[in-house]
UniProtKB/TrEMBL annotation:
<keyword id="KW-1133">Transmembrane helix</keyword>
<feature type="transmembrane region" description="Helical">
    <location>
        <begin position="389"/>
        <end position="407"/>
    </location>
</feature>
<feature type="transmembrane region" description="Helical">
    <location>
        <begin position="482"/>
        <end position="501"/>
    </location>
</feature>
<feature type="transmembrane region" description="Helical">
    <location>
        <begin position="233"/>
        <end position="251"/>
    </location>
</feature>
<keyword id="KW-0472">Membrane</keyword>
<dbReference type="GO" id="GO:0022857">
    <property type="term" value="F:transmembrane transporter activity"/>
</dbReference>
<feature type="transmembrane region" description="Helical">
    <location>
        <begin position="449"/>
        <end position="470"/>
    </location>
</feature>
<feature type="domain" description="Major facilitator superfamily (MFS) profile">
    <location>
        <begin position="76"/>
        <end position="509"/>
    </location>
</feature>
<dbReference type="InterPro" id="IPR011701">
    <property type="entry name" value="MFS"/>
</dbReference>
<feature type="transmembrane region" description="Helical">
    <location>
        <begin position="172"/>
        <end position="194"/>
    </location>
</feature>
<feature type="transmembrane region" description="Helical">
    <location>
        <begin position="307"/>
        <end position="334"/>
    </location>
</feature>
<feature type="transmembrane region" description="Helical">
    <location>
        <begin position="142"/>
        <end position="160"/>
    </location>
</feature>
<keyword id="KW-0812">Transmembrane</keyword>
<protein>
    <submittedName>
        <fullName>MFS general substrate transporter</fullName>
    </submittedName>
</protein>
<dbReference type="InterPro" id="IPR036259">
    <property type="entry name" value="MFS_trans_sf"/>
</dbReference>
<dbReference type="GO" id="GO:0005886">
    <property type="term" value="C:plasma membrane"/>
</dbReference>
<feature type="region of interest" description="Disordered">
    <location>
        <begin position="1"/>
        <end position="43"/>
    </location>
</feature>
Amino acid sequence: MAEKVPAITATHEEYDTQAGVYTVRQDGQPHGSEDDSNVSSAGLKTTKNGSTVLIPQPSDDPHDPLNWSWMKKHTVFLTLLPGCFLTDWVITWGSVLFEQQAPGWHMTVPDVANSISGAIFMQGPGGLLAVPLVQRYGRLPVLFWSQLLTLVCSIGAYGAQSYAGFTACRTLQGFFGAPPQVIGLSMIHDMFFFHERTRKINIWAFSFLIGPYLGPFISGLVAGAHVDWRNNFGILAGFYGFSVLLIILFGDETLYDREKVHEEPRRTGIAEKISKLTGISGFRDCAGRPSLWQVTKDLFGLLLRPYLLLPTFGFVTWITMWTIGIVSTISQFVLPPPYHFTHTQLSLLFFAPMIGTLCAEFWGHWFNDFLCNRYIKTHGGKYSPENRLMGVYPAWIIGIAGLIVFGETLQHQLSWVGIAFGWGMNCFSTLGTTVAISAYILDVFPQHAALASAWINAFRTVGGFCVVYFQVKWVTLSGPAVTFGCQAAIVAFFIVSIIATQLMGAKWRIRFPAPATSRTT
């Protein structure tokens, strides 16, 4: 007898073949059957038009985030996005200012460029350490303190009087600025239903993957207006001030204890708002939630699941490290001869990765849902999470071609248009593959969204931390064509991790199930 693949989530969700939607299982059995075409008569909550059963089923509590109005959900979602934009934005903001800083620090430009490597690396630990706090005390206080502390560090970088002090502030920016990338999947899972999540993941991933280009674009334009690097960092602090203000005004807690009886009246008022923002409310209401130690054990326990490790470390690390490498070193390729770009021209070149990322946003907005719906229709109403990974392949091919175009253009000193196209193609690939993998991870770890997301972020940044140290040296030694050609070959090779996950993922999910869920989602 064939082994039965576990349902997509730990809440016993299963696809109803007759209804054409996912339905919720009760007592381990499908709620509907092929003879039960009237899903609503089964007592399940559906969308307003009755065409789609809501997964997961919301409670009867109007304060359940799943029951919030469309406006409320998207307003709270909006408070997350500036922090996601700024996560990498804060690091790459200074990547076009190395030439301004080098004389003042009495250092070479490549040595000054190392000031961002610590910030890139600390994004990983920053995201991992945020996870237990997010699961124990809530999403809102972690988001608030993340943005407030990064604002303080940005002000510190502005006022730093030595390279060591400046680098320390930059490193802390990476550490404190990382949580929005971890919180994102959890907030999406908290507020949105299964049929809504992929598009929200696309927006969330777009926001933190366009940040590395939008930041230097603005910073370069400011530098081109002959603003010194200190005042440039003062503008960055202003952006973080805006993020903090948005969270204070419109943020709300999305963590909801689904198995807890909510009989107490909901607290309101300014005092309660402050309590939520600072974490006092989360500390007060944390009874029944997993302990910090339990979440930490589960966090590292996820690494034992090959269907997490292979798509993240086995693929995300290798496709994103070259993207981070380009954005961290692009000024050293186009400011010197033969291109002789000005700071304004360098800033305008950042339109290329932004356009590539924007195209990937439009592409992913419909393509991932198309893959999901097509699989369901062609497989008798059944669905396999591994189908999500089909979305990796088109973007993967484009990314390989982009790295080759980028390297050949630099090697033969061709038009800057080749640099722009190659860079844009590479960035299209980064977002396209990240969305598909994130959607898969949320499907197979819905109750551990923050934990799984933290590993995606950690493996994405570990490669970026390393590449800053050797990218320019590699190009100098071997030439751009060989360097970026080798990077393309590495990306091409590691597709084996995606293929292995697609072939073995269902069996792995049986053999290595996710850690037992706690009382909260």
